[in-house]
Specification:
By secondary structure, this protein is an alpha/beta fold. Helix content is 38%, strand content 11%. Strands 3-2-1-4-5 form a 5-stranded parallel beta sheet, sandwiched between helices. Helix 2 links the parallel strand 2 and strand 3. The longest helix is centred in the middle third of the chain and has 16 residues. The N and C termini lie far apart (36 Å).
Length: 230
């Protein structure tokens, strides 16, 4: 246990980041959370993040607006089609157009600044290098490089007052393993949102990569996805 030591959790409103929130709470951290509205296709995941932050009683939830639509280059921030009904083989061949250029670097840079101000020694992020869509900023070597950079980037680290670790408890887990761990910790996955391209009423499309990976994870975990029962 960490006796109230502060943790800043990057909270997207999705399955992975919510599980990470539950892990941080189980480890005894005092919880802070950070969510971004970055010009993505819909507000659903931001709304989910707000629900989850409330459910976990975070001390402070910070929402930052960044318009990555001005950069574009992704189906999540520009008028490009979200890939649908791809096979597992297709998902493994190339980085999809849902990749948002430098997204985790942008998010972690903001998290690093906020963690320094909060004097929070741990930033939790739900990146995964097993059941994912091949994004380069979800790999262990990327996280290690960012953590090394953080030692040089902030005043508190240079002065030896604070070393900020980037915690990635899900990075080597399958989606099924993540779901099982979350259920063990009492995660209510009804609060979460995963779909890249939901229907206007918020229902998941069940065809995008994120939906397919989520559905596969629940099937392999031996549980029904509560969102599909709604």
């Amino acid at each position: 246990m960490n006796d109230g030591k502060k943790a800043l959790v990057l909270l997207s409103g999705g399955l992975d980041s919510t599980t990470v929130m539950a892990i941080a709470r189980a480890e005894g951290y005092a919880l802070y959370s950070l969510t971004f509205f970055y010009g993505q296709r819909h507000h659903r995941e931001v709304e989910a993040a707000l629900r989850i932050a409330s459910a976990y009683g975070v001390i402070k939830h910070t929402l930052i607006n960044i318009d990555l639509g001005k950069i574009g280059g992704s189906a999540l921030t520009a008028p490009l089609d979200v890939p649908k009904a791809r096979t597992w083989e297709e998902m493994g061949k190339e980085i999809p157009v849902t990749y948002v250029p430098a997204r985790n670097t942008i998010f972690l840079a903001h998290a690093l600044a906020l963690a320094e101000v909060l004097e929070a020694p741990d930033i939790f992020i739900g990146v995964n290098a097993v059941d994912y869509s091949g994004y380069p900023d979800c790999r262990p070597e990327y996280i290690k490089a960012f953590e090394n950079m953080a030692k040089l980037a902030i005043k508190a680290a240079v002065e030896g007052k604070l070393h900020i670790a980037i915690r990635t408890p899900l990075i080597n887990m399958t989606k099924a393993e993540i779901i099982r761990r979350g259920l063990e910790l009492g995660v209510d996955y009804r609060l979460t949102h995963s779909c890249y391209d939901p229907f206007p009423d918020g229902r998941p499309c069940r065809c995008c990569d994120s939906c397919l990976l989520r559905e596969k994870g629940f099937q392999e975990a031996g549980h029904n996805d509560p969102l599909l029962a709604c």
